[in-house]
Amino acid sequence: MQESRLFKLLYYLLEHGKSTAPELAEQFEVSVRTIYRDIDALSSAGIPVYAVQGKGGGISILDHYVLEKSLFSEAERDHILMALQGIIAAEGKDSDELLTKLSALFRIKATNWIEVDFSGWTQNKPGQDVFNSVKHAILHKNVLSFRYFSGSGQYSARKAEPVKLIFKSRDWYLYGYCPEQNNFRFFKLTRIRDLEILSETFSHEFSLPAIEKQIRPEKTVKVKLKFDERIAFRVYDEFTDEAEADGHGNLYVQTELPDSDMLFSYLLSFADCVEVIAPASVRERMMKKLRDIQSKYIT
Questions:
Q1: Domain range spanning residue 157?
Q2: What would the pLDDT profile of 119-150 be if each residue is shown by its tens digit?
Q3: Is residue 137 part of a domain?
Q4: 61, 77, 96 — which closes off a domain?
Q5: Which among 23, 106, 161, 214 could bridge 177 via Cys, Cβ 3.0 to 4.6 Å?
Q6: pLDDT, tens digit, for every residue of 247-271?
C-alpha cells in the first residue's frame, strides 16, 4: 500500500510541480505526518525531493528529474511493457525504440504477446495509415476532413474534432465532435475516404458524454432467426451466448439488427443457411428481396 502511494505521490509532484503537506494529506487521505514520512522515504530512495518553508514554499521535485527503474516493482514493470506492446501492435513500429529502452532499463526481455493486423483476409491494403492519422490528430488536436459512407448509404464530406479511437466488436471507430451535426458521433474507420489532417486545430477540452457501451444504428428491429447447423461456426462467432439449439442441430437466435438495407445484406451473407422466423414484416421484406434478386437471373 505504501509503495503504491509513494509512486502516486511522486507522480503527483512531477505533474503539479509543487504542493504543501496539508494539500498532499488531503489528496491522498492520510495525515500530514504520514506525508512527511513518505517524503523521507522518497528522499532515502535517492529521489531529489525537497521542502521550502514559509510563504510560497512547499514540497517539490528537482527540475528535470527522470523516473528510475527502482520505483517500479517487477509486476509493475511487466505491466508497463505489456501495455506498450499493445500500443505498438495497434500503431505499428513507431514505439519499438521506446520498448527496447524500457526493456533494457528494467532488464526484462519483453514477450511479444500481441499482434494487431488491420487488413481483412480479402484486403490487400491495411488501414494502418488511417489509424495513425487519426491518432496523430487526436494527440495534436487537429481537425479532420474526410468523405464518409454512412449506414444509410449516403456519401458526404465531413469534418470532425477527434476525441478517441474505440475498438468495438471487430471494428475500429473514430469518436469525435461533428460540427455539422452539433453532436458527438462514431465514424467507422473502414468507411472513411480521402482523410486529411487540417492545419486547423481546436483548443477546448470536451466535457464528454458517457460513451455508450454499444454502438447502435439509429433504428433497429428485433428479429428471430433460424440457422442451419452448417453455419454454426459463424453463429457462435457473431452471437456468442444468444444461440439456442433444437434437437435437429438448428440454431435459433433472437437479436436486434439495423432496420435498413444493411439488415438484408447481412442476412444474405449466410446464403441459404438462415431463415427469418419473426417478425412477419421482416420475413415479407426478405422474400421481396429474394424475388428481386431472382429476377436478375431470369433470362
A1: 128-210
A2: 554 444 446 788 889 988 988 899 999 999 87
A3: yes
A4: 61
A5: 161
A6: 888 999 999 888 888 888 889 999 9
Domain CATH code at residue 177: 2.30.30
My answer on whether 198 and 149 are in the same domain is yes
- Of 163, 192, 210, the domain-final residue: 210
- Sequence length of the chain is 299
pLDDT in tens, 62-74: 776 655 555 566 6
